[in-house]
Amino acid sequence: MKSTFSSVIVSIVICALAGCQGPANHGESKAPSLSRFEYSAPKMGTIFGLTLYASDKGAADRAAAACWARVDQLEQTLSDWRPSSEISLLSQQTLNGPMAAPVPVSEDLYYMLERSLEAARLSDGDFDITVGPLVRLWRRSQQLVQLPKPSRIEAAKRSVGYRFIKLDPAHRSVQLLAPRMVLDVGGIAKGYTSMQVLKLLRERFGITRALCGAAGDIHAGDPPPGKSGWVVRLESLEDKSKPGVYVRLHNYGISTSGDTERFVIIDGVRYSHIISPKTGLGLTDRIAVTVIAPDSTTTDWMSTAVSVMGPEKGLALVEQTPGAAARITKIEGGRIAVWESKRFGQFAFQPAP
Ligand code: ADP
Ligand code: MG
After folding, report:
1. Which of 217, 289, 315, 339 is the most exposed place for a label (fewest CB within 10 A)?
2. What are residue 340's phi and psi, to 5 degrees?
3. Quick one: which of 304, 297, 294 has its CA closest to 325?
């Protein structure tokens, strides 16, 4: 799940972690004994940021160390960049053909597979973690600045298809039914990880006022003391000199997917690192999608999925997801088009100049 984080993503995190404050909320009582602590660390091929409120530095440092240990554990479980990760070892079992029998997997991996299959069904296969072989071809294209031969794409596609993943909840086991499969949870795992970090802080340390962000995938817990929420400036394809769009949220996830930096231009065409499983190639649409929802596993996969699905189908999916909202910008005919879901206005606000 390594990624060179894009500018879309960076400015969200910086803003969120710097605590860009919108209008103060006077409705909430202050908790004066809490101080703010900020941490960041290179993890999962990107920069993870953590902001938390704790009584003292010792308590905050201990909690942050436990968070990083949890992120490391998830990386060793879920990274397709590491040949020794649990998910890579699982994929490797298909090198010589489909798996003959199911194998039990860890709780974290099983949950990721379960949620990924749900995402694939809801997006009609536009979000599909079996795209790994196509992602590998994309990474090669990026290095060589050359598209893969059609025969290679066709060969890779034979290993792609979420229906090749068979789960057995009773035994928490999985069987992969096609040869040379490569599972890639890079489009869903960072949202899950951010939410897991907040769960750990709450359950082991009693820390609820926290925000964890991994590149474009953020989970926000209870708000900072005296505030009604965490303020995040959305990044989009719009002119950077314009006043930004801000949202305020707590106990919610927010993810942005876009092609601002992770792309390759071949023969004048720009291919995003988000792959259309149907064409086998990176998206050529210029689109940036932000999804907000109570669960950041959902926001992560859905922002990637909506990028593939496009505004119309994508917004229909967002509207039918409880508590979810989205904002999409897309370049159409040289102009920026903007779409906002019905619930988006509940989160958006304009900070006082
Ligand atoms: P980022 O990694 O920049 O946060 P995303 O969350 O949108 O961006 O995830 C993009 C990653 O998801 C890609 O780098 C790749 O690993 C994986 N991916 C690409 N296309 C798809 C797809 N159609 N379905 C599921 N995962 C995908
Ligand atoms: Mg994603």
Report:
1. 339
2. -130, 135
3. 294
